[in-house]
Structure formats: C-alpha cells, structure tokens
Design a protein that fits this description.
The structure is a homodimer of 408-residue chains. Chain A contains 13 helices and 20 strands. With 408 residues, chain A is α/β, with parallel strands linked by helices.
Amino acid sequence: MACYIQKFGGTSVGSIERIQHVARLIEKTYREGHQLVVVLSAMSGETDRLSTMAREVSQDQDDRELDVLLSSGERVTIALMAMMLKSLGVNARSFTGRQVGIVTDGAHTKARVSRVDTQRVRAALQDGVVPIVAGFQGMNEASDVTTLGRGGSDLTAVALAAALKADTCFIYTDVDGIYTADPNMVPSARKLEKISYEEMLELASLGAKVLQTRSVELAAKYQVPMEVRSSFQDGSGTRVVQEDTDMEQVLVSGITGDRDQAKVTVVGVPDQPGIAAKMFVAIAEAAINVDMIIQNVSHDSLTDISFTVPRGDLKSAMSLVRDLAKEVGARTVEVNEAIAKVSLVGVGMRSHSGVAARMFATLSRDGINIMMISTSEIKISCVVEEKYMELAVRGLHQEFELDKPPGV
Amino acid sequence: MACYIQKFGGTSVGSIERIQHVARLIEKTYREGHQLVVVLSAMSGETDRLSTMAREVSQDQDDRELDVLLSSGERVTIALMAMMLKSLGVNARSFTGRQVGIVTDGAHTKARVSRVDTQRVRAALQDGVVPIVAGFQGMNEASDVTTLGRGGSDLTAVALAAALKADTCFIYTDVDGIYTADPNMVPSARKLEKISYEEMLELASLGAKVLQTRSVELAAKYQVPMEVRSSFQDGSGTRVVQEDTDMEQVLVSGITGDRDQAKVTVVGVPDQPGIAAKMFVAIAEAAINVDMIIQNVSHDSLTDISFTVPRGDLKSAMSLVRDLAKEVGARTVEVNEAIAKVSLVGVGMRSHSGVAARMFATLSRDGINIMMISTSEIKISCVVEEKYMELAVRGLHQEFELDKPPGV
C-alpha cells in the first residue's frame, strides 16, 4: 500500500462537471487500496473574482483581510468534492488549512509554512478516510488564516507529502507534463519523462507556470518525488526527481522564453565605490526582484548600470530608481519593455562545456543581438529584443536536438 | 459609552455599493464613540448559489460538508467590510465564527450555540477595534465548522449581545420594522414602535421572516433589547423588548396570513385508543412540524383526523401517513393545499376576553368559513380557504383598528 498526494489545480475543479471527473480519478486510486490525500485549489477564476471585489472595496490592500477573503474559495471546492466522493462510496472528509495542520508564519498573502501538525490527518488516514484538503491556506500562531501566495496549493501538497513521507506527490493540472519548450511556441517540443529538482526550479523561476517555485524547493529539500500529470487526459506525465547520472548525458533539458521582463538603465552614474550597492540595497528593501545586472565600462568617470525586473514591478522600481538617480547625480533613467529572456536549462551543462558558445553562435546565425547574459551552473540566459524571442527559442530547440528523445 | 451589536442581512451587503453604504452606517456609530460589534450575513443569493452547486454534485446531503461550503459566504463579506472600513479610517478586523468564539453542538446545518468564548472579541474591543463577525457559523467541539440554520446570523448577533451584555442588538434588514400586518396585503398597516419578545416569537413562528425565531427566544431569555431597522433608509425601527403594562392596553398587536400550510385528513380511522398517538409519534420522529390537529366526533366507531403541516414537509408527511393509514385500517387520506392560516397576536389578550369571538364574527360577516382553530395565551389562529386569506387579514385589521396608533 502506497501513500499518495493528489493535487488538482483550479481548471481541474473549474466546474461541477470537472469536479465529477476528478472525483472519479480519485475514486480509482482509492479503489486500488492506497492511502490518499487530495489537495484542491479554488475553482478557476474564483481568486480573480474575489481579488476584483477587494480592489473595488478599497485601494489600500489589507493583507490580513485579503487572506480571509481569498481562502474562502478552497472551502467551496473541498466541500463539493467531499460530497461528490461520498456519493460515489468513497469515505472522504474535507479539511481546511487549519484542520490539516498547516501552521505558517505571519506574512499574510505570502506566508511560509513553519510546520505541519499531521496528527488529525494521520488519524483520518488510519480510519481509511480520504482527506480532501484546502490548498493555498494555513493558520498562523495568532490563529488567523494565512495564504501561501499564487500557486500555494502546490506548496500545501508538497508540505503534506513531506510530513507524511508520501511515495509520490501528483500535481494534476491542465497540461500533461513538462516540455522541452512551450509547445505553443515550438510545435516539435517533446514531453520530458523526468526532470531533476534543480532543472525544474530553474524552469519555474524562468516563468514555467506548471509548478510553483517554492513547492519544488521544498520537494528537493525533503526528496519528495513529484509527478506533473493532466487531469484532462489519461497517462503518465513528467516525474520531478533527484538528479541521476542518466540525466547528465543530456546537455539541455528545456528552453524557455520569458516576456515578463523590463530593462532599466541608469545613464551617467558617477563611477564611485558604493553607488551601485546603495541603489540595489534600496531596490531589494522594496522587495523588487532584480534579475540581471550589467555595469558598462567607465568613460570620463561615468558609467551606465542596467538591470532587469519583472514588468509588474517596473512602476515601483522606477519611482525608486528615479529618486536614487537624482540623489547620486546620474544623468537620466531609460526603460525598455520590449525585451525577452531566452534560457537554456540542463544539469548536463555541469559536465559539458561549450553550451554557451553554441547558444551564442545559434542566436548570431539568426541575426539576433544579445543584450545581456547571465549564467548559473545549469542555466544560460540571454536577453534579446522581444520580437526575436520565438525565433530564438525555436532555433535553439533545433540546435540542441530537443525534439529527439535522449539516447537516440 | 454604550455597547452595540449591528447585524446586517444578505440584502444589506448584497453588492459592493451596499457594502460601501453599510460601512458608512457603521462608521457613524463608531465616530460617536460607542463600542461596536458588527455581524454580517453572506451576500444575498450566495447561500442559494452554493446550495445549488451542492445539489448538482450529490443527491445525498452531507451536512458536515454542506456547513464547510455554506460558511464560505460570510468570510467574503466580513473581509470586504473590514477592508472598506479600514479605508474609511475605522479600526476594523474580521472574525470568523470560530475566532469570535461561537461554540456549538455537533448538529450540522442547524447547530445550537452552546457557549460564546468572548475573550478574543473583548480584547479587540478593549483595543478600540470594531470586530466584523461572520454570522451563521460556529465551531463544534471537534473543531469542525457548523452553521446555525436559515437566519442564523440573527442568532450570532443575539448570542454575542447576550455574552457581551450589549445595550442593544440592532438587526438591519430590508424593511424598517415590524408592522401590524404585511403592508403588501394591508396598505394601512402601521409600523410598531415596540413589541414584546413573546409577540415577536408568535409572529416569527407564524411566518414573519424579519427575525429568526431562535434569536428572539435567546433575546427573551437573556433580556437582550433588539431593534429591527432598515439599512436602506434612516430612522428608528421597531424595538423588541420585555413586555410592559403599556403593551397590555393593546388588544391585538399584529395580524398575519400564512400560505405555507397544507391540510392532511385521514378519513375513517378506527376510533380506538392509541391510534392517533401512534401516527403523530411517527410524524414527530420524522422531524415534521405538525401545527394544528382536529379529530372529528366519531360515527360508527370511525373518526377523521385532520392536521396541518408546512407545504415543504407535505411530501414526506404523506408517504408516512399513507403507510400508517394502511396499517391502522383507515379508509383514505385526503390533502388540501389551498388553505391559509390567519392569526391575531397580542399580549393584551391575556387580560381581555372576547377577542376570539370578535375574530369569528368578523370572518363570518365576510362570509369566510373557519376550517380549524388553535389558540395560545396571546394568539388565535384560524385556517381558512386560501382565496379568502387577504380578505380576512384586511377585515380583521380594520375591526381591531390596527391602523390607528395605540391610545388614540
């Protein structure tokens, strides 16, 4: 008898029909005799509907109340699913975040799980009950409801899998796995059978929306095997597992293109020690995520500093940077939103050199200018003009032969 | 400094605009410097929307899960209201049923409040916070959410008022008070300035939907002064208070007409001891509320037994009664749904005789046949043909001069 977590996202429970369909998937696993914990998101669209009402009511966001509001959506899905399953003869019972023992810190709307009190859910499993758990939510030490941020249901699922030492944490969604590239961009993109935690982390932070970044971090930390599957079609998906020697044979596992980028350039900064540091400390304190940074060679004791931020953070970054630029006596601040980041990810890069060179050559061959570069042990990213993004991704997909299964 | 409870029903918080309007009402009381606890229902229509989804998912009602589902609606309104109030500069904070300490028994969908743990709400009031409380919900000893039945938010408000010894429990709704009769039926109906708990209880159980019966019972028990007001227009409403000598001067306080009635007659029942008892015990065990009962004089050792039930219970009552009728050898069972119950309510009846006689004479004068009669200390009800209901109510309203203020 195995112990599984099955997490279903918003589109998988987006209507009564979808809930009925998912109930039958759960029933199947239950009939096979496994221990099973189900984690659900709110119906798709519900979180947006509630957020819109919150904005209509007040311009000032109140995080504690926003959590009370947003956490109502999952209560609806867990109750409906438990009802549906019981009518199918499955011994199901709903659990809110509090009831399943997800204890978090006090950071409303983006709380971190501090521990999982599994007593109640373990007792339910002992009794043969299938707990139907509200994802995305927990309770802080003050007994207030908290939420775990966008995609937080994945985190709930992995946290429960780690606490219960589950055999696999299945993430059911509207795609059937992780692909070598976005199939909408690259028709020959291929579904990966498995991928390492580290590669998945890079892909997630590069904008692959299939899995929430923090959930993959947690899975890696506790060695929780994950599998991304489709709730819309049968068949296995992509396993997210610990890296093995097999994987190192593959040079590049996936390619991403990310439009959610904007480039800010502070022009004519006096080239004195500490000025760049001052600027980036202030930006970090405003919780704005700076991705890449470039500082040009100095001319006449003046230099240019460029960096990229997510487009959503651009406005707040700019108001900050304009003030700072004035303060340090920089000449002006320029913005470019028409950029995109193209990235190669693969653990094989650790043991194979020359990947970067091949990437640059491929882009150059297609006449694409590289504006910024950043690398990690298993990733190379280039910022290019936005209009070239798809061309770049397709060219690289072909160059690294990602349409062909590994070892062929 | 007084301590007030303000409860707003579903229509009062039925849209963003209504929530904004109610927030300003709350702000006004807050600025006057009173201690204030606000209790909210779900947005109007929300409970029906959720109930419909539950029925679509499963035919078998699962009460525990239904409570998880239905209790989500109030979380939305309390969060939105707290946000709105904070943006008006009011120090508001949302409280779920659990957080405000409403502890109930385990009877899901119709739980009874067993105690109110006021520690947290008292601390909030001490800190100058306005608690915005989710009505209709509580938590049982197993730490599961429970709901208090239709109109349960009134019960939350009165329970808090009793526990906090509040000066008045205001029930804001879409009507501006309790009337001598339904103004839709009797244009000259007059708003009562005050009414006793007992009269209100009779009116509520006779189908006046303004206040939930159990909340009036609780208010009477703990002597909580209530006031029914409109959230749509300014001005005072109707106070529900302890009976005073003043009230006894008034013969009749209110008249109701109730169409939600059906009459069942078991024809040709053998007139033996225990047969009626057997029937009504079985009906009571099925939790069907029998209102009036008549047993005819026996002919040839056979008798007819008639009783009324709410129309919603008719189907289940009939299947039960048909079986019982067969069992005891009764001839047949007849149903009449075209009936209505007309009632006079007033504490003055205790000290004045002749009210019943005047009622019967008035109905007779208008050619209305009385099918059944029942009385209590402060109420007389007659069952009449449904088509005569409005005529009866109007005639009685005039006969007892309810359009004129008392003492004039």
